Amino acid sequence: MEKHPRKLLVVITEAAIEKAVVQDARRLGAHGYTASAVRGGGLQGEREGAWEADRSVELKIVCGRDTAERIAEHLLAAYAPHYAMTVWLADVQVFRAEKF
């Protein structure tokens, strides 16, 4: 089976900005995304999701390298200074290249 290289862009951020982040990612070239509610902790403390303002979301976007870097650069500049946000990239291989 033929495989195609892509990037997995993962964004963990505050649920309050999920819609804006998704709109920006789509505008910048993402064909789709997957969102999940998550909990965790780090340098900025714990985010347990016990109340609305404390909820976090994980967004996964599979796309080409240029698109992933463009989205990451925008999100880090526009949101990271004001909201809890973690962003990373990983190499992945997909089977249906036309979807990504």
Automatic annotation (TrEMBL):
A Pfam family in this protein?
A: P-II
Taxonomy, superkingdom: Bacteria
One BP annotation, GO: regulation of nitrogen utilization
Enumerate the SUPFAM superfamilies for this protein.
GlnB-like
Please name the InterPro entries in this protein's record.
N-reg_PII, N-reg_PII-like_a/b, N-reg_PII/ATP_PRibTrfase_C
- GO MF annotations, alphabetized: enzyme regulator activity
What protein is this chain from? Transcriptional regulator
- The organism encoding this protein is Zeimonas arvi
Q: What is the lineage of its organism?
A: Bacteria, Pseudomonadati, Pseudomonadota, Betaproteobacteria, Burkholderiales
